[in-house]
Amino acid sequence: MQFQENQEGLALAYKKYFYELLSYATKMIGDRQEAEDIVNKVFLRVLESWNRFKNPDHLTSPYIYKSVHNACIDFLHKTQKHRARHKEVAYLSEMVWGIAIDENAYNDQLKNIHAAIEALSPRRKEIFNLFYNKGLSTHKIAMQLNLKLQTVSNHKHEAIEAIRQSLKHDIL
User: What's the chain's average pLDDT?
Assistant: First the structure.
């Protein structure tokens, strides 16, 4: 009975707010499909925590808007981090493509990148892989490896510098 009441209450809120929230989220992030996913995830989280709402009227427009707003901000932060990660990879790729005229030269440069990564100290290589390959944040890496945030940042920076230097050396 409780679950059915939850579904009915949420269905009313969904009908009442969905299109307004979709429009709001789309304006915030600029992608309608992602905005729709965000709004649906917010409603799913509301359903999962429905027992906190003693009365469906407590599920107010400001509460839902703030939830969608926060989810959009989280999405934008993740997108920005993703772009920053790929900016470094793009830099390395530009170095490779800038030098590599043919496929053999490209493959050689790719081998050089892998060799430069393998030449990193075990800790730097681990941090580099967790950040660039696994997509973990600096904070999560620090927690996982029980390191200070600044230590992880330093290792990331030094790993990229070492790879750049190795590639510059290989180019010359």
Answer: 77
Q: How far apart are CA 167 and CA 170, in angstroms?
A: 5
- Between the two ends of the chain, the Cα-to-Cα distance in Å is 73
Helix (H) or strand (E) holding 18: helix 2-29
Count the Cβ atoms, other than its own, within 10 Å of residue 11: 12
Rounded CA-CA distance 80/68 in Å is 18
What is residue 146's three-state secondary structure? coil
What structural domains and CATH numbers belong to the chain? 2-78 (1.10.1740), 100-171 (1.10.10.10)
CB–CB of 46/37 below 8 Å?
Answer: no
Q: Distance between CA atoms of 123 and 146, rounded to whole angstroms?
A: 12
Q: How far is CA 125 from the centre of its chain?
A: 20
Prediction pTM value: 0.46
Residue 162, Cβ neighbours under 10 Å: how many? 17
How does residue 120 score in pLDDT terms, banded at 50, 70 and 90? Answer: very high
What sign does the CA torsion over 59, 62, 66, 72 have? positive
